[in-house]
Amino acid sequence: MRASRVSHTSVMLLAWTVALVVFFPIAWTVLTSFKTESSAIDASAMLHFQPTLSSYSEVFDRAQYVDYAINSLIVSVGATLLVAILAVPCAYSMAFHPARSTRGLLLWMLSTKMLPPVGVLMPMYILFRSMGLLDTRIGLILMDTLMNLPLAVWMLFTFFKEIPRDILEAGRMDGARVTDEIRHLLLPLALPGLASTSLLSLIFCWNEAFWSLTLTSSSAAPLAAFIASFSSPEGLFFAKLSAASTLAFAPILVLGWLGQRRLVRGLTFGAVK
Amino acid sequence: MTSRHRASLLWTPAVILLAAGSIIPLLMTLWFSAQHYNLVTPDLTGFAGFENYRLLIGDPAFWASLRNTLVLVGSVLLVTIVLGVALAVLFNQDFPGRNITRLLVIAPFFIMPTVSALIWKNLLMHPVYGVFGIVARDLGGTAVDWFADHPMVSLIMILSWEWLPFSSLILLTALQSLDQEQLEAARMDGAGAMARFVWITLPHLRRAVSVVIMMETIFLLAVFAEIFVTTSGGPGTATTNLAYLIYGRALLQFDIGGAAAGGVIAIILANIVAALLARTMATQLEA
Amino acid sequence: MATLQLQNVCKRYGAVDVIRDLSLDIADGEFIVFVGPSGCGKSTLIRMIAGLEEINSGALLIEGQRMNEVGPADRGLAMVFQSYALYPHMSVRENMSFALRLARVPRAERDRKVAEVARILHLEPHLDHKPGQLSGGQRQRVAIGRAIVRNPRIFLFDEPLSNLDAALRGQMRGELARLHEEIDATMIYVTHDQVEAMTMADRIVVLQAGRIEQVGTPLEIYRHPVNLFVAGFMGSPPMNQLPGQIVDCSNAGVRVELAGHVAVAIAATSRAVKMNDAVILGVRPEGLRLDPAGSLAGTIHLVERLGSISLIHVDLDQGSRVIAQVGATEDVRSRQRVTLTIEPVHCHVFDQTGRALMSLS
Q1: Is the pLDDT of residue C42 over 80?
Q2: Which long-range contacts (CB under 8 A, 24 or more apart) does B78-83 make?
Q3: Mean pLDDT of A81-108
Q4: Between the CA of residue B4 and those of A84, A93, A97, C51, C54, what are the distances in Å?
Q5: Are B267 and B58 in contact (CB under 8 A)?
Q6: pLDDT less than 50: residues of chain B
Q7: For residue C299, what is the enclosing H or E element?
């Protein structure tokens, strides 16, 4: 059986090589974030350097990282909550009280997600300006909600459909009204599905990089916009970029890693489980 | 039964919000595209008919952007599907550290587009200070000035890196649902590894591959942030895709009518893909 | 008084009539069983009674009050589902007290009721377990307990025993019967198993294709089936059906001649038939006797020895195949030639439409 052992080892080597290659840019960024600006661009100090947190403190002090981070946090969490509040009843009624229009509605919701944001850039900009929503967190929460609602409804729909119908019927016989059904039976049983839906929604909101760049300028700008400011920087900035980037992606990376097994269903609108 | 009737209407808040947020802007875009509306020439107003479209179609930059869009989408699709299938097959094997390598491979998906783009442009691809350049010089060659000489290829690399985890994850999940017994039966029938792959594995993945293609196309058609922070569509119009062109018309040139016309075209393009995707999804609804 | 009435009830799914113009009166305290083959509408019927399906036309009255528009929880009913439908994330105690919690019954009273029911059903050691930790029979009892706690006027059972193995089923049948005596409530029970129907029911409702074929006590249904369907469905092994012809009608009864010139005189009303009409003679296995002087000759092709009796499957010379019941000690073997006699008192005659001729006795 030597042949299989050789192929077994080569599979492992290949897989690890691929994984490390793919992960390399991220690892390199984290590494660079612990350098000073001068050592960041010093070819000879690529791997041998004195680790320091100076770049991080620069990002915090001079670049007001915290303000942007708070914006990202408020917008992401706010939009995720709003999406949950709207999507749960919607998916509930579609899963358990379907009507003739249900199928059409679900497909229509899917189609709104297909809309390229740039196609409605102008109207959104003008609408936001006239409603005073430009450069506000509420405005961005609204946009992110619109973008994530179809995905959330679809994901929750497929999760709810997996709950056996007669458990809810038994609840109805026991005297549960609709609100009781949702609160005592549906949510506890669909909690894992709800969690992964919210997680995906959170990730997409945090990483959203179209409306964040076009509809905000200073006060509501989230981290995506903050990082974008490094595209036309002054002076040496590699280490600061690395530090800012690491701070920006670290929380989402960790969350994504924790929930990655359950995300596939949402990413494909339930087409692949 | 009245509470049951009320329950069947619980979808109204979500649907109304979504409808307002999509139909109204859509109608406005349509409206603007037929208007003379350019903040640079504010005195020229009124119905313009198809003029904006005519101007757009007559503009070589528009066709360049269309071509760039298709090149971008097509190349990234090709790379991510081919490599995605390969990675899925690779990571479907059992080997020590399987779970950790899986985490490493899906990491790029969770990185913000602006961060990805800037990391690649500066830390990796920068001809002087980037890792690629340093390694090239160490090996005795010269550094490639990626964004100056090969801007499109650079973008394709970045986008492929961002989307490879998505495609591998989906394809890996689909692969794991492949019944082992089918493969064993084929083996008993005398099929070698390559034959088993071509005749059993690939057909099984067909549905997942089409889902990946559809989903990626939708998002890739609208690529914006990466271009915004790296090339700003340049040099010239070398990396301007349709989305960036419209953005430029709208927020940089203030040609709202023209931007709207471009937007309508982008929407039509996306709708074609959406119709195909919806048909796949509709079969899912039967299940 | 927990009486229930169905008046001309209909149910349609799209273009298909699932329940057609069905009327039924159920008395207080009865144990009534709906039985019939798959697709006969029995589950739909009980779900309509429960309020989980809408009644398209006709009325449902409980204790004289119309319940069509009343929600499931307000009809005073409780249902035990085929799959038990226990709440998987709640303990047994919480499962049984859920309805009381929703009705805002104070905690002390809730606990008292749950404890009482747990005692009756021997569930006390499991009160803090989750359904996933229990066996099938225990889950069954929790489902029943959940229904009892609500103190309903009428209990509904939707094929509750079909998910249990045979031994457990027998045991649970007895327990349900015992429960009925103790609680003395009206119980409506749905099953496809006619043995369950026969052993448990005060009255049986035999359903087919959305219509009631017959309502009666188990013995009535067994001894006097009104048509071929009921005759063939109820009773195991099924009734033997032999085609024949009327050769004599009179006030004393009819005379039926079977293939092979075997004639039987049966005391049944001759009003619905006339001379030479084609009929079916029905006789249960216990109505056929081994008789060396018998008129039906044939060859045994299978013997089933059940211990207390034996069943012989005989290929008759005249063409039909019958099952006869014989004593356990009879010496019968496969491929043996035998002759059988039909006991007229155990016979039923069915006319061309399948309706039974009424017995004159």
Answers
A1: yes
A2: B79/B156, B79/B160, B79/B164, B80/B160, B80/B163, B80/B164, B80/B166, B80/B167, B80/B212, B80/B216, B81/B167, B81/B209, B81/B212, B81/B213, B83/B160, B83/B164, B83/B167, B83/B168
A3: 88
A4: 22, 9, 8, 11, 11
A5: no
A6: 1, 286-287
A7: strand C296-305
- C121 with C50, same domain: the answer is yes
CATH number at residue C266: 2.40.50.140
Same domain membership, residue C269 and residue C204: no
C326 assigned to some structural domain: yes
CATH number of A64-231: 1.10.3720.10
Burial (0-12, 13-18, 19+ Cβ within 10 Å), C209: middle
Please say if the pLDDT value at position C3 is more than 70.
yes
Please give the residue that has the higher pLDDT: either A136 or B161. Answer: B161
| Contact between residue C19 and residue C209 where contact means Cβ atoms under 8 Å apart | no
Residue with tokens 């099938």: C136
What CA–CA distance (Å, rounded) separates A240 from A264?
34
Residue C8: which CATH number? 3.40.50.300
Taking contacts as CB-CB distances below 8 angstroms, the residues of chain B near C71 are 1, 3-4
The full set of domain ranges for chain A reads: 2-45, 64-231
Min Cα distance C48 → chain B (Å) is 13
Tell me which chain B residues have a C-beta less than 8 angstroms from the C-beta of C69: 1
Boundary (domain end) residue, out of C217, C233, C249:
C233
Helix (H) or strand (E) holding B136: helix B131-138
Does the pTM of the predicted model rise above 0.90?
A: no
Task: Let me know: does B242 contact B66? Beta carbons within 8 Å.
Answer: yes
The residue extents of the domains of chain B are 34-286
Q: What is the CATH number of domain B34-286?
A: 1.10.3720.10
Q: Does A173 touch chain C (CB under 8 A)?
A: yes
C37 and C118 fall within a common domain: yes
Q: Cβ B3–C69 below 8 Å, yes or no?
A: no
Q: Is the ipTM beyond the 0.95 threshold? A: no
Total structural domains in chain C? Answer: 2
The burial class, CB within 10 Å (0-12 / 13-18 / 19+), for B23 is exposed
> Do residue C54 and residue B1 have CB atoms under 8 angstroms apart?
yes
Do A139 and A177 contact (CB within 8 A), yes or no? Answer: no
Residue C360 inside a domain? The answer is no
Helix (H, G, I), strand (E, B), or coil: what is residue A163? coil
Nearest to C72 among A164, A173, A185 (CB): A173
Find the domain containing C17 and state its range. Answer: 4-233
